[in-house]
């Protein structure tokens, strides 16, 4: 350990002791006697580094549904923050989630904790609750003392907290393990993103619900958010139009994305007006859907982040502050228009500008080099099936209600009460109470179920819960397929299903009731690279710029930030991206006077 680092830790200990003395003593000022007992710190060596030992601010940015290849494809058109991250930062070009459940709640919890869902327990955006016999959101909190709280007079329903997240976030650990001076602030349009990035408690965790900014009981409310919610509400964007921001020739794809399902009030081509259902009058729910699917929502989140830096003076306290923003709109646009769309290309051009503004603000208020940024995504997305089919490839829609019907039918001759299946949610098949236990003891019925699922159009394989338990994914000697390992990394007892469907590549898992049209273009949530491969970009304090090609996962982000901040996380699922960290400079180590070389044995003894 470098001596400079030891000294730093020492003074921190003294500070902590003083703080503790104040706390226990109430108004009795006996601090000096405690402080006096601490051994005097050694004077710093003249060669000690001037730079702070830790970043002043950690900035975590998540772009919801940003595929890894968007950086490769669109980098040439960026001039702002995304370009700066690539040019001044460390770009990991082969980053991918190793698990199956590539969804928002799961990805954000993985980035924030440095653990996989089998550890942090956020296995999906929503799962079937065996006890309640209903679907529950990953953030839903049944504790009656918990409630959501609206800014600017809004009255949101429900309660969303991080109580189902089994381990603390990096930000919580940072606050807990250092002097406690850390402020934790997060923003997103989605509760499941803002909450998982912040953790169980925070100075602010804010999301958007039905036209209003919202938080909940475990998080503090902030006057600057109230002010922003009143002075520049989302409805101020009513009447604006999202038009192409580059020359038409700059776009990779045609003006209509094949198979796209735009939000109400929008056509298949630009421009997209933000005028709600009727086009006149007051903002309605349709307007807020349009707004959330537009670059204006990204700009609103960026403004909130900048206000947080100013109002709380983030990056100017004794500790390391934490600011997180999850940009949700790319996800909505991707679901509607697919990855091969002008809409995706254009919203990233706008986001690049927003991030350029955010970094310029941080340079000014925190200081270039004093903060570290990590940018990633929670998952990617599969091309719209109809679009993929146009290439002649095997692609399609795997209708989950059809799978459910097949299972019920297969069990008719085995005397199982209907419905045998309680729910199919994404890949997870949940049976009604007692049914799966019965199937485990009834191999003929189990085989019939397997046969029924495996022969449904678009199904590649089926896995059983007992194959995934006890985390076999981590076993070095395991010879399972990558897909099997991926389902094991996602498996959490009591929350995951009984059986798991692996679709064929480019087959979309779809829960739309049979006979109804799909209300979206495409989706994500399976263990294929188009859903798993995401960007990981690090920039700023302690980061060695460059392009890195080794295979990593977004669970490596939190351990890397932890190494920069000198703290320890509970999980070792992720690892430190040591190759992208600057090595300590020579100046950190006091130089020893050079030793004289020993004389060669054959040399004559010249001593007197
Ligand atoms: Zn999504």
Distinct bound molecules: zinc ion
Low-confidence stretches: 1-45, 586-608
Classify the secondary structure makeup into a structural class: alpha/beta
Q: What proportion of the residues is helical, as a percent range?
A: 25-40%
State the total count of DSSP E strands: 20
- Beta-strand residue percentage: 5-15%
Rough shape?
Answer: globular
Describe this structure in words.
With 608 residues, the protein is α/β, with parallel strands linked by helices. It is 34% helix and 15% strand. It contains 21 helices and 20 strands. The strands form five sheets. It has a ten-stranded mixed sheet with strand order 5-8-7-6-11-1-12-19-2-20, with helices on both faces. A four-stranded antiparallel sheet has the order 14-15-17-16, with helices on both faces. Strands 3-4 form a two-stranded antiparallel sheet. Strand 6 (184-188), helix 8 (191-198) and strand 7 (204-209) form a beta-alpha-beta unit. Helix 4 (81-88) crosses helix 13. Mean pLDDT is 89; it is low at 1-45 and 586-608. Zinc ion (ZN) is lined by residues 65, 104, 331, 335, 524.
């Amino acid at each position: 350990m470098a001596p400079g680092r030891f000294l730093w830790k020492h003074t921190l200990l003294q500070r902590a002791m003083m703080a503790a003395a104040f706390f226990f003593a109430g108004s009795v000022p006996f601090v000096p006697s405690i402080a006096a007992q601490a051994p005097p710190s050694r004077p710093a060596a003249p060669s000690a580094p001037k730079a702070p030992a830790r970043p002043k601010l950690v900035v975590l940015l998540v772009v919801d549904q940003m595929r890894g290849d968007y950086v490769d494809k669109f980098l040439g058109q960026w001039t702002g923050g995304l370009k700066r991250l690539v040019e001044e930062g460390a770009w990991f070009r082969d980053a991918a989630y190793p698990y199956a459940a590539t969804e928002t709640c799961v990805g954000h919890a993985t980035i924030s904790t440095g653990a996989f869902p089998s550890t942090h327990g956020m296995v999906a955006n929503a799962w079937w609750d065996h006890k309640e016999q209903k679907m529950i959101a990953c953030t839903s909190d049944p504790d009656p003392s918990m409630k959501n709280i609206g800014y600017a007079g809004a009255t949101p329903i429900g309660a969303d907290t991080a109580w189902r997240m089994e381990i603390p976030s990096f930000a919580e650990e940072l606050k807990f393990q250092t002097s406690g001076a850390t402020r934790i602030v997060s923003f997103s349009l989605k509760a499941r993103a803002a909450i998982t990035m912040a953790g169980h408690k925070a100075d602010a965790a804010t999301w958007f619900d039905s036209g209003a900014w919202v938080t909940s009981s475990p998080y503090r409310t902030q006057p600057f958010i109230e002010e922003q919610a009143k002075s520049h509400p989302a409805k101020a964007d009513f009447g604006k139009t999202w038009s192409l921001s580059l020359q038409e020739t700059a776009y990779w794809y045609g003006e209509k994305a094949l198979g796209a399902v735009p939000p109400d009030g929008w056509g298949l081509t630009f421009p997209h007006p933000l005028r709600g259902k009727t086009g006149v009058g007051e903002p309605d729910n349709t307007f807020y859907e349009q707004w959330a699917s537009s670059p204006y929502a990204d700009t609103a989140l960026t403004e909130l982040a900048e206000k947080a830096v100013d109002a709380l003076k983030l990056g100017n306290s004794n500790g390391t502050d934490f600011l997180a923003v999850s940009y949700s709109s790319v996800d909505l646009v991707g679901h509607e228009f697919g990855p091969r769309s002008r809409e995706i290309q254009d919203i990233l051009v706008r986001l690049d500008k927003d991030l350029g503004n955010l970094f310029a603000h941080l340079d000014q208020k925190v200081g270039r080099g004093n903060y570290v940024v990590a940018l990633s995504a929670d998952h990617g997305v599969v091309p719209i099936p109809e679009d993929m089919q146009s290439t002649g490839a095997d692609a399609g829609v795997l209708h989950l209600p059809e799978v459910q019907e097949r299972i019920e039918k297969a069990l008719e001759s085995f005397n199982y009460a209907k419905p045998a299946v309680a729910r199919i949610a994404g890949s997870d098949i949940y049976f009604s109470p007692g049914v799966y236990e019965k199937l485990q003891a009834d191999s003929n019925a189990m085989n019939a179920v397997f046969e029924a699922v495996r022969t449904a159009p678009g199904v590649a394989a089926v896995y059983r819960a007992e194959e995934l338990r006890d985390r076999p994914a981590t076993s070095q000697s395991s010879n399972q397929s990558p897909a099997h390992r991926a389902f094991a990394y996602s498996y959490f007892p009591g929350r995951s299903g009984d059986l798991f469907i692996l679709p064929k590549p480019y087959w979309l898992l779809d829960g739309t009731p049979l006979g109804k049209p799909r209300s979206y273009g495409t989706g994500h949530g399976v263990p294929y690279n188009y859903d798993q491969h995401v960007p990981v970009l690090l920039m700023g304090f302690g980061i060695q710029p460059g392009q890195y090609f080794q295979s990593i996962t977004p669970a490596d982000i939190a351990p890397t930030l932890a190494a920069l901040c000198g703290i320890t996380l509970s999980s070792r699922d992720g690892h430190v991206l040591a190759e992208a960290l600057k090595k300590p400079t020579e100046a950190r180590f006091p130089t020893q006077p050079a030793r004289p070389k020993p004389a060669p044995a054959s040399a004559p003894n010249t001593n007197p």
